[in-house]
């Protein structure tokens, strides 16, 4: 039986090396592009057809997803401040969702199962929150490290705790998405491997489970994209409101 | 795990994923989101306006309904008054007509009674004269003589009185 982790291997398709950096296009990148092309293509199709006041099926789906993200942003960041973050958060949600879902196609690849990718996004979001915080509050932003109502004597203790808490945010953000995607795909790979290697009279059982778990994975793809973007909104909201 | 072993691909994965995300963000923000978000806001605004309009129209309709009900109530009251007046008027006319008819009937009855009385008196007068003549003639024949004026008168009076009494007696019976 083939290793269930085998399908997490990345294979270069077009080797590209620039200034000693390996920027080769591989199967993970191609799968991601397919997912993103579907997302961008759907939006552009609706926009090129002309956004109708009475929406069709595709426009309805896109409007519902945008409305869903917009209400989430308004809830955590606030309507006035949140308006400018809607495109970013919506793009982030759609990006992660597309990457999660495209990986469910057999033979494809889930780029969000790479800790390097989820880590890069998490660190990017963490840096973005710092930029927003310092941009909005200046040096007062450091006040985020002191929770309100804390006695002055406790500040030397609270500041390191808050710093650790802040630094833990991108780590938890990255690991959560990576772990969920990896675990789901591993379970699917194990069950499918059992179905393929077992005798026919027994093989249908893990194959049936594969179908059930696949359905579950679709839900997890949505949930993880939602959690990632929700936490992003919470972090941005925190640095804007400062507690 | 390959995710930790293939360190050489990290650079390419991070580069292409961030670049792709940036490109997706640019395309969606520049071309896709504005018209869709605008359509959403327009629809929200329209729905909000429509709801406000419908609320206003509903209130207006309720006001008109109340006014109509009041008008209808007033009209009903007026109609009832008119019907009552017409009823009273007709009752008065009926009573008047009845009274007139009764008066006419009474007059006719009175006239008829008077006529009957006149006829009776006239008849009695005729009977009286016939009876007088008959009595005188019979008496003269019976006595074979001619009665004097006083006898005649006395006889006639008595005879008439008898006849009249007889007639009145019969009439009473």
- End-to-end separation of chain A in angstroms reads 53 Å
Which protein chains are joined by the largest interface, and how many residues does each one contribute? Answer: A-B, 53 and 36 residues
How many strands appear in the DSSP assignment of chain A?
4
Q: What structural class results from the helix and strand content of chain B?
A: mainly alpha
Q: What is the count of distinct domains of chain B?
A: 1
Number of helices of chain B: 3
Compute the number of helices of chain A: 7
Number of strands of chain B: 0
Task: Write the element-wise H/E pattern of chain A from the N-terminal end onward.
Answer: EEEEHHHHHHH
Instruction: Tell me the structural class of chain A.
Output: mainly alpha
Structural domains of chain A: how many: 1
The backbone outline of chain B, from C-alpha atoms, is rod-shaped
Determine the oligomeric state from the structure: heterodimer
Neighbour order of strands in the largest sheet of chain A: 1-4
Strand content of chain B: under 5%
Beta-strand content estimate of chain A: under 5%
Mean pLDDT metric of chain A: 88
* C-alpha-based Rg of chain B, rounded: 62 Å
Précis, in short:
The complex is a heterodimer of chains A (243) and B (173). Chain A is mostly helical and 243 residues long.
């Amino acid at each position: 039986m083939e290793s269930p982790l085998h399908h997490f291997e990345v294979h270069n398709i077009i080797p590209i090396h620039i200034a000693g950096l390996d920027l080769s296009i591989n199967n993970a990148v191609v799968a991601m592009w397919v997912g993103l092309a579907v997302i961008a293509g759907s939006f552009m199709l609706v926009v090129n057809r002309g956004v109708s006041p009475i929406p069709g099926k595709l426009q309805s789906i896109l409007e519902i997803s945008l409305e869903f993200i917009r209400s989430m942003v308004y809830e955590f960041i606030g309507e006035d401040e949140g308006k400018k973050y809607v495109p970013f958060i919506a793009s982030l949600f759609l990006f992660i969702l597309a990457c999660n879902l495209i990986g469910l196609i057999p033979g494809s690849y889930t780029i969000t199962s790479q800790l390097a990718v989820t880590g890069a996004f998490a660190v990017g979001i963490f840096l973005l929150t710092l930029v927003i915080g310092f941009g909005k509050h200046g040096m007062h932003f450091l006040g985020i490290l002191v929770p309100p109502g804390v006695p002055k004597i406790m500040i030397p203790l609270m500041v390191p705790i808050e710093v650790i808490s802040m630094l833990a945010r991108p780590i938890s953000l990255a690991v959560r998405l990576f772990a969920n995607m990896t675990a789901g795909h591993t379970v699917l790979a194990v069950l499918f491997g059992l179905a393929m290697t077992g005798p026919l009279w027994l093989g249908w059982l893990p194959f049936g489970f594969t179908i059930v778990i696949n359905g579950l994975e679709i839900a997890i793809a949505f949930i993880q994209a939602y959690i990632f973007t929700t936490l992003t909104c919470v972090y941005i909201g925190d640095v804007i409101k400062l507690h | 795990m390959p995710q930790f072993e293939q360190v050489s691909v990290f650079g390419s994965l991070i580069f292409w994923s961030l670049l792709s995300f940036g490109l997706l963000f640019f395309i969606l923000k520049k071309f896709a989101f504005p018209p869709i978000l605008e359509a959403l806001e327009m629809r929200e605004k329209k729905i909000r306006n429509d709801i406000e309009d419908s609320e206003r129209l509903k209130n207006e309709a309720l006001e008109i309904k109340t006014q109509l009900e009041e008008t209808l109530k007033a009209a009903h009251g007026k109609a009832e008054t008119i019907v009552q007046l017409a009823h009273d008027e007709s009752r008065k006319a009926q009573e008047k007509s009845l009274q007139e008819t009764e008066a006419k009937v009474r007059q006719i009855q009175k006239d008829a009674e008077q006529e009957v009385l006149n006829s009776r008196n006239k008849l009695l007068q005729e009977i009286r004269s016939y009876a007088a003549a008959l009595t005188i003639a019979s008496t003269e024949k019976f006595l074979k003589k001619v009665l004097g004026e006083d006898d005649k008168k006395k006889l006639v009076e008595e005879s008439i009185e008898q006849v009249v009494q007889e007639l009145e007696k019969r009439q009473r019976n």
